[in-house]
Design a protein that fits this description.
Blueprint lengths: L1 E12 L5 E12 L3 E5 L6 H8 L7 E6 L2 E2 L5 H8 L2 E5 L10 H11 L4 H14 L15 H13 L5 E5 L7 H17 L3 E5 L3 H4 L4 E6 L2 E7 L4 H19 L1
Parallel strand pairs: 3-8, 3-9, 6-7, 7-8
Antiparallel strand pairs: 1-2, 1-4, 4-5, 9-10
Helix pairs in contact: 3-4, 3-5, 5-6
The protein binds adenosine-5'-triphosphate (ATP) and magnesium ion.
Length: 248
Amino acid sequence: MDILQIKELHKVYGKNELTNALNGITFSIQAKERVGIMGPSGSGKTTLLNIISTIDEPTSGKIVLTGEDAQQLSLKQRSHFRRKLGFVFQDFHLLYNLTVRENITLPLVMRQESKMLITERLVVLAKQLDIQSILDKYPFELSGGQAQRVAIARAIIHQPSLILADEPTGNLDSKASRNVMELLCSVQETEESTLLLVTHDPVVASYCHRVLFIKDGKLVNEIHLGANRQTFFQSIINTLSLLEGDLG
Ligand SMILES: Nc1ncnc2c1ncn2[C@@H]1O[C@H](COP(=O)(O)OP(=O)(O)OP(=O)(O)O)[C@@H](O)[C@H]1O
Ligand SMILES: [Mg+2]
């Protein structure tokens, strides 16, 4: 089943000087899939995520998430649409005056969910993401890897259909990156969610089932996880160097 369908997406920025950030992108993602997006700086990756999350409007094209067309929504429906999404950012976006526990549970507290449900979700996620011992700390007391695991718990606590992650390991060293990716994948699997992740890092991309390559706002290549992660990693590197060759 397709959870997300993107059809002929175009985005033009500017009035006098125009930037074609997206030039007709079409793809779909199946439920429970992990899809990576790679491409040079300025190729339109963040624009694509912003449009899927309805933070930004496309110039033309279609976004359908769990059967709901993002272009046809009223304001009220739009906030409901966004609840189907979970966001993970490069710089964590934690609230610095709240504890880890408060940061994670905030989305459910704002929705006035029951205390029992909130505690139940917190306990399950804290265990899976290995953050039980830091629940009463403040964000400034955390390492980058811990902060990102907290941000993942917050992104997933409301059981979103789709997790959107823009460079989630961009501020982490390679060891913390791998740890965060392992935990993100395992929580995405147990929660039966779906992941769309932008990254520059081939190691991070190799945790996906499929990687889409975009250049100048166009989809130029797509590769699938084959026999194992090591060969997938190698094909990602090869595809990237081909792409860079094209640029030169
Ligand atoms: N709000 C905006 N107004 C005008 N132009 C924009 C805006 N946002 C992005 N752009 C332009 O659109 C193009 C795509 O930008 P985008 O941020 O999507 O790239 P990206 O692939 O995420 O790059 P990076 O890897 O550096 O994060 C760039 O040329 C950028 O300058
Ligand atoms: Mg970007």
